[in-house]
Amino acid sequence: MFSSTLLTLATALPLALGQSYNSETVLGVYIFHRHGDRTAKITAPANLTDLGYRQVYTAGDYYRSRYIDSSSPYHISGINSDIVLQSQLQVSAPIDTVLQNSATGFLQTLYPPVGTKLDTEELRNGSTVTAPMQGYQLIPIGVAESGTGSEDSTWLQGTSDCAKAEISSNQYFTSTEYNKMYDQTKDFYHNLLPVISGMFSAEDATFENAYTIYDYINVATIHNATIPSASLLTNETLSQLLALANNHEWNLAYNSSAPIRAVTGMTLAAQIVQFLNGTLADAGSFTGQKLGIQFGAYGTFASFFGLAGLQDVSVDFTGATDYASSMVVEMFTNASDAVTTSNYPADGDVYVRFLYHNGTATASDPPTAYPLFGSGQNVLGWNDFVSDMNKFSLGDTGAWCTACGNSTGACAAYVDSDASGSSSGSSSQESKTGCSNGVSPAVNGVIGAMVTLAVVLGLEALVLLVCGLRVVSKKRLAQASNGVSSEVKA
Fold first, then answer.
1. Alpha-carbon span 418 to 402, nearest angstrom
2. CB of 348 within 8 A of CB of 384?
3. Cα–Cα dist 199/26, whole Å
4. Sign of dihedral through CA atoms 416, 421, 426, 432?
5. Is 274 helix (H, G, I), strand (E, B) or coil?
6. Of the candidates 173, 178, 144, which has an alpha carbon nearest to the alpha carbon of residue 161?
7. Computed from CA positions of residues 62, 68, 70, 74, in that sequence, does the dihedral angle turn out positive or negative?
């Protein structure tokens, strides 16, 4: 795509990883990011707006200046600053137009086009080829395991695919807290019917649809030139709409008495640890993974916030995060020696910092560090961080299936057939493999196949015996091709 000479030089760079300012060297980073401004959920399919595109584009530029720019004090050690090296970057988003497009917009400034001096390649025959769009850098976006169609779903757990999480969230709708809020807000939502009647009936204008109503009105206040009965939308009313939506969604995303409700946060926690573990395992290799980026919905933010105890830090963590918001886990070392592949810090010298920004991060409005797990500390040792994350993370299919109670599709291999649908008596080995005999699903599959083959062969022998037939080779059949044979072809 770009100059072959330039790429050769890039891959031949020395593996000395450099030293950050203030005696800190950033080793790896994981970013979880919300999409930009979009059209309303109620008017699906939702689409990223020009404003939303600008928001994620701006955020990408900020994170480039923080982690990619070689002059930044937070430059990720060893990461390419100009031409992306695909192995250093891992980007994912669910199969969802808004989220996929948001990731694309973000990447356009994280690694911008290389420019007219670097966007050409000379072929062997002497001709020159110029890359499109001034060397626009193509960065693949992987598919996140859950969250498909997130922005077209009007229910928070609608795309989690976790049976027990969906049941848990549904239980909120029968709780005393929910019913009390439903009754107290009847008049409030009824009074908004002149504004929302084009999309919501009188029956639907209730606290049950708190977020969808807020979302519809919020989009209108941003984009619509005119709004029916706009005088009803006072600042106080808009604030109350947001507060009710936040209350509604927080209770659907997290409940301390029912942790599985926060299943998306559990999955994200495992993905963060697994990625950064991979960074450490690469020990500073030039081609190793250094920056993980995932785009997702606000529900995952809320679930993770609850699991990490951030609701005790600030009430701001108990609601739906704004468009283009981001949370970041920075992994760094304070080791005084320069970090190289041959002098990589031990786990005991590695630390983690959690940062969050509500809305689009910029140089003038950057993310803020917050303490995790009730520690009261903005910096945690790597081993402590992993230990706390592992208390609630779900990092493999078997663990996820067991926790969610799912038994079909990919989870079929993890179902304990002897437990009659109950896992209460399962041993730890059964929980990991889903097999009451302690044999892995793969081995069980082979055993099953062998048993099936034996049964088939037995039946075939019985048929041959009863019918007076026998099996002969193709060679003997060829020899008897001119005659009539009562033998069966093998």
1. 15
2. no
3. 49
4. positive
5. helix
6. 144
7. positive
**What distance in Å separates the CA atoms of residue 158 and residue 298, rounded to the nearest whole number?**
13
Does the global pTM surpass 0.70? yes
423: CB partners within 8 A, 6+ apart: 402, 405, 416, 430, 431
In whole angstroms, what is the distance from residue 176 CA to residue 467 CA?
Answer: 72
Cis peptide, bond prior to residue 45, ω within 30 of zero: yes
Contact (Cβ atoms closer than 8 angstroms) between residue 389 and residue 30: no
Q: Which tokens sit at 365?
A: 């409005």
| pLDDT tens figures, 396-410 | 999 999 999 999 988
**8 Å CB contact between 354 and 369:** yes
SS3 of residue 31 by DSSP:
strand
Spatial separation of the C-alpha atoms in residues 424 and 405, rounded to whole Å: 12
Interval 3-23: pLDDT, tens: 433 333 333 333 333 344 458
Three-state SS string across 38-104, please?
ECCHHHCCCCECHHHHHHHHHHHHHHHHHHHCCCCCCCECCCCCCCCCHHHEEEEECCCHHHHHHHH
Alpha carbon distance 131, 3 (integer Å): 10
Q: What does the pLDDT read at residue 160?
A: 83
